[in-house]
Specification:
alpha+beta, CBS_dom_sf, transferase, CBS_dom, Diverse_CBS-Domain
Amino acid sequence: MNKRTPDTVRDVMSRDCYRVTGQTSITNLAQGLALHRLPGAPVVDTSDRLIGFISEQDVMGRVLDSIYHDDEAPLVRELMRQDVLTTTPNKSITDLAQEMLGAKPKVYPVVEQQRLVGIVTRRDILMALLTIRRH
């Protein structure tokens, strides 16, 4: 089996990624993040354009608060961050790895022509770097 050495984000990104809309409840989001074992998720509009990002950390306190007060959990749009660090499918793995050294996100939405085409995680990039190192 001849596996090609990954060069770009496209080679390692997850294309069929978990995403939510602004109308998603925080409870449903939390269940989805747990199910998919993700630290956060991109938020998209009806055309799959990236409009924000929401992380476990963003919602944990609000879920806890809604349990204590026995009230309805808020919607994603109320807690999401609109200023999102993204990458493109054509970015080199080593360039993104350099950027990840300083930035905090563990998940980067991959955007092409303003549409979400996938996600890439720090783990994906680390595994790709290890593959590159072996070759």
